[in-house]
Amino acid sequence: MLAVELHAHTHASEDCLVRPRDLARVGRARGLGRIAVTDHNTVRGALEARDLDPELIILGEEIMTTQGELLAYFVQAEVPPGLSPAETIARLRAQGAVISVSHPFDRLRKGAWREADLAAILPHVDAIEVFNARCVYPDDNARAVAFAREHATLGTVGSDAHSLRELGRAQLEVECADTPSDLLAGLRQGRAVTRLSSPAIHLTSRWAKTWKRLTGRR
């Protein structure tokens, strides 16, 4: 079985300082077979990581739409933030990407979704994230699980790792994840392994934002 991390960030996200080479090194050491790098509104970090270890890295992006965030896997080109969900999904479909919905009901995230808006796009996405290790309130993950079951929708799990210590806390064990169709099959048949991160882990994101602001580093 192949352990897949579906939601990891690098220094290309404003609230993360993880270098692509460290992400690949630690991911390999922890037995991860594939890592989807889903930086916020950019594929720059994912491209750097893929150049270092193309057999490990899945090129992805976490995209802020006008109604909430989407996760995309196996993207071919960056999709800008601020578009409508319909336009964002259309651009991802044109690339053959697999589309999920980030932490849909996390009450502390600006990228969370209203239930009516989520229901409206559900026929046009492949899955929703039913477990996010960074959710402070477990009920928010439970609500996503219940929603996915009610609507017979596939579920993704993610560590949402913004630091190396978080990498691999949520994994999907699948037979293969080399192509979009492999990943979709894994979402149907794979086994999720999940552990919540400590709420204190959010301090790492605050520190990363502060450090980048003070140093002017992007």
Plain-language structure description:
- About 35% of the residues lie in helices and about 20% in strands.
- It has helices at about 20-30, 45-50, 85-95, 115-120, 140-150, 180-190, 200-215; strands spanning about 1-10, 35, 55-65, 70-75, 100, 125-130, 155-160, 170-175, 190-195.
- The strands form two sheets. A seven-stranded mixed beta sheet has the order 5-4-3-2-1-8-9, with helices on both faces.
- The protein is globular.
- The mean pLDDT is about 95.
The CATH architecture comes to: Alpha-Beta Barrel
Mean pLDDT equals: 95
* Approximate strand percentage: 15-25%
Main-sheet strand order equals 5-4-3-2-1-8-9
Q: What count of domains describes the coordinates?
A: 1
Q: In sequence order, what are the helices and strands, one letter per element?
A: EHEHEEHEHEHEEHEH
What general form does the structure show? globular
What's the CATH topology name? TIM Barrel
- Percent of residues in helices comes to 25-40%
Spatial separation of the terminal alpha carbons: 37 Å
Quickly give the structural class: alpha/beta
Write the layout of secondary structure elements.
Blueprint: E1 2-8, H1 20-29, E2 34-37, H2 44-52, E3 57-64, E4 69-73, H3 85-95, E5 98-101, H4 115-121, E6 127-132, H5 138-150, E7 154-158, E8 170-174, H6 180-189, E9 191-194, H7 202-215
Parallel strand pairs: 1-2, 2-3, 6-7
Antiparallel strand pairs: 1-8, 3-4, 4-5, 8-9
Helix pairs in contact: 1-2
